Amino acid sequence: MAKPPLSMKPTGWFQVAWSADIKPGDVRRMTYFDREMVGWRTASGEAVVMDAYCEHLGAHLGYGGHVEGEVIECPFHGWQWNKDGRNVCIPYQDRPNRGRRIRSYPVAERNESIYIWHDVDGREPYFDAPDVFAGFGDGSSAADYYPPMTLHRERLELHPQYVLENGVDFAHFKFVHKTPIVPVFTRHDFTGPWSYVDFTITFEGDDTQSIEDVRSGVEAINGGLGIAVTKSWGMVDNRTISAITPVDDRTSDVRFMVYIGRSPGRDDQRAEAKAADFGAEVIRQFTQDVHIWSHQRYSDPPALATAEYEGFTALRKWAAQFYPDGRGGNAAAHARSEKDVDLEFSRPTTKSEKGRAE
Ligand code: FES
Ligand SMILES: [Fe+2]
């Protein structure tokens, strides 16, 4: 029961549903960022997310509100509201109320997911939600992969930042996942609202392996704090999306998707079954992380090994930009007061350096 010292109202894109959850005409209740909301879809197919309460006398649109074409109609007195939250009809008056507006959130729908832009100051989106295919600029698309397998866990006591810190946490693989993987970071770029962490995979005990021999790796894009997309290449071919959305000031919903690559010319049932096994294994490994995160207490300042210092410090400093106070709690303030870290990796760090903990 550790309330994070980091704000649970960060700015950015956050998943509130999967696309399939909200079909045309559906109205669905949801709670995020400590606000009651409704997600609905117009008859023409546009997803809308807005605050739940009617501006007339406050009925909850998620209890009996229904979609009429492109608008939602309140169950109490029939007032109609459009996707921007504007009142467009009062059924017993010849003109709508143009002054009142229900807060409606910018929506991005991609990768079978519905994301909303959240910003406590009401600013418009100033960066995009990452796409698990287009984001990597490699010409890939969903057609190259089996349909995604998913995990959804609600109201866990964890903060989105914990999940992103996993991306720079090279030491946990052996202990959490029981895999002898030693990632070697090849890119840490924390300059914009999207940050990039790439690593190649080496294996413990294989001291003869040089960086040129590496045949597998992972590229990750963190699109703000809410969405992280990864591409695994080499011996495995998969894509993942982790999306963490604060529900209130203690808990978050966790959604995870994994796409397993199709092997060209091998689209038989056996290949499909193998992909399903592989996807289940990726999800199992993710749940191992979730188990840690959901009981974790944010350590601030953390006791870092030398090799961990650069990645964690850069990530925490980057994360601070998304918090309303620009600090996100004293952890980020601490990271900022440190001397500027050099974010350039002029050369890949060797495995022996990573393994040394002074
Ligand atoms: S409360 Fe919604 S129409 Fe009256
Ligand atoms: Fe992990």
UniProtKB/TrEMBL annotation:
<dbReference type="Pfam" id="PF19298">
    <property type="entry name" value="KshA_C"/>
</dbReference>
<dbReference type="InterPro" id="IPR017941">
    <property type="entry name" value="Rieske_2Fe-2S"/>
</dbReference>
<keyword id="KW-0560">Oxidoreductase</keyword>
<feature type="region of interest" description="Disordered">
    <location>
        <begin position="327"/>
        <end position="358"/>
    </location>
</feature>
<protein>
    <recommendedName>
        <fullName>Rieske-type oxygenase</fullName>
    </recommendedName>
</protein>
<dbReference type="InterPro" id="IPR045605">
    <property type="entry name" value="KshA-like_C"/>
</dbReference>
<dbReference type="GO" id="GO:0004497">
    <property type="term" value="F:monooxygenase activity"/>
</dbReference>
<dbReference type="GO" id="GO:0051537">
    <property type="term" value="F:2 iron, 2 sulfur cluster binding"/>
</dbReference>
<dbReference type="GO" id="GO:0016042">
    <property type="term" value="P:lipid catabolic process"/>
</dbReference>
<feature type="domain" description="Rieske">
    <location>
        <begin position="14"/>
        <end position="116"/>
    </location>
</feature>
<dbReference type="GO" id="GO:0046872">
    <property type="term" value="F:metal ion binding"/>
</dbReference>
<dbReference type="InterPro" id="IPR050584">
    <property type="entry name" value="Cholesterol_7-desaturase"/>
</dbReference>
<keyword id="KW-0408">Iron</keyword>
<keyword id="KW-0443">Lipid metabolism</keyword>
<dbReference type="GO" id="GO:0016705">
    <property type="term" value="F:oxidoreductase activity, acting on paired donors, with incorporation or reduction of molecular oxygen"/>
</dbReference>
<feature type="compositionally biased region" description="Basic and acidic residues">
    <location>
        <begin position="335"/>
        <end position="358"/>
    </location>
</feature>
<dbReference type="Pfam" id="PF00355">
    <property type="entry name" value="Rieske"/>
</dbReference>
<dbReference type="InterPro" id="IPR036922">
    <property type="entry name" value="Rieske_2Fe-2S_sf"/>
</dbReference>
<comment type="subunit">
    <text>Homotrimer. The two-component system 3-ketosteroid-9-alpha-monooxygenase is composed of an oxygenase component KshA and a reductase component KshB.</text>
</comment>
<keyword id="KW-0753">Steroid metabolism</keyword>
<dbReference type="GO" id="GO:0008203">
    <property type="term" value="P:cholesterol metabolic process"/>
</dbReference>
<keyword id="KW-0001">2Fe-2S</keyword>
<keyword id="KW-0411">Iron-sulfur</keyword>
<keyword id="KW-0442">Lipid degradation</keyword>
<keyword id="KW-0479">Metal-binding</keyword>
